[in-house]
Amino acid sequence: MGDGEHYDRLIAWNRELTQVHDRLRQLLRIARDSTRSERDAARRELLLHCHGFCLALRGHHESEDTGLFPEISARHPELGRVIDTLRQDHDIVASLLGEFEQALTRADSAEQVARRLDGIAAIMESHFRYEERQLLGVLATLQLDRDPERLLGPLSAE
Fold it and tell me: Which of 16, 46, 89, 135 sees the fewest Cβ atoms within 10 Å?
């Protein structure tokens, strides 16, 4: 659906956000599991899973920065500091993802890659919990006639 099309369901944005976070957690688990494999094809699987996870997380944060956060800021200016903090977290995660992808490109050991992934996981989980604590109540009342993918990224449910 394009931006101008009408959505014929009431979107529970709080539920959409938690579902996207759960999907990203699942992708992270798959990527982490691929670092523990001893099979010959493990390196290819590691690259596939980790790049998929990186793309999904980056897409989610970019969609929030350009779609969801401006909508929240317009309706709830009192959340300006929260949104600023979340955007700063996105910058930190983007930097960590870049370093992680460089480690994959350099063909660092599976143990080194796993440690980097664990660092991303810790920051990501802290970020998700903060975001959910701060925004789920607001999102439960948010009424927007918008495509969830534009606001939350490619993992949103439709």
Answer: 89
